[in-house]
Amino acid sequence: MDVRPTADRLRESLFNVLAAGNPEALAGSVWLDLYAGTGAVGIEAISRGASQIYFVESSSAAVKIIRENLASLSITTGFEVVHGDVLKALRRFDAQSLTVDFIFLDPPYRSKQAYGETLEFLGKSSLVSASTLVITEHQKKFDPGEMMGFLQRVRRLVQGEGGLSLYRRT
Q1: In the chain, N or C terminus with fewer CB closer than 10 Å?
Q2: Per the confidence metrics, is the pTM higher than 0.90?
Q3: Does 75 reside within a domain?
Q4: How many Cβ atoms sit within 10 Å of the Cβ of residue 81?
Q5: In a domain, 125, yes or no
Q6: C-alpha neighbours within 13 Å on the C-beta side of residue 6
């Protein structure tokens, strides 16, 4: 299986940046966890007060793991697990006029094309408002780009072999 959970230190750094000294910063937020893998990032968001997480994953085995992880933590509400292609799911969410606060995407590192396709779609999508933060996890040596459509990188964090790029709509 091609699942690579976000490293604990990198995930902790991400949530520390997002909270920025305010433990209630994520309360009531809505997330898309794209290429969700084990669901670790979305589950962490739930634990920090997010009200709704949409996990999107194409792998049947990974979807099963997400569901098992949610059940093992007794999380029964505030999420939807979507088994399918990320771009198809995004088109569906876009058509539903869903708006989100945070979008986290972590395609398999070997699938560099998925970064560009997903970011380009999000840059044109109504899913992303001026306040939405789009976060990509990637290898330190890979740069997903400064500008992707109407998304501009506002911050880059590197830790170990991994990195995070944070984007906002221009």
Answers
A1: N
A2: yes
A3: yes
A4: 19
A5: yes
A6: 29
Q: What is the pLDDT of residues 105-158, one digit of tens each?
A: 999 877 888 999 999 999 999 999 999 999 999 988 998 988 888 999 999 998
14-36 pLDDT, tens digit per residue, is: 988 888 767 788 999 999 999 99
71 is in which domain, residue-wise? 26-169
**Does the residue 17 lie in any domain?**
no
With respect to residue 95, please indicate whether it lies within any of the assigned structural domains: yes
Q: CATH number, domain at 157? A: 3.40.50.150
Q: Which residue type, as a one-letter code, is found at position 154?
A: V
DSSP calls for 106-158: ---TT-HHHHHHHHHHHHH-TT--TT-EEEEEEETT----SEETTEEEEEEEE
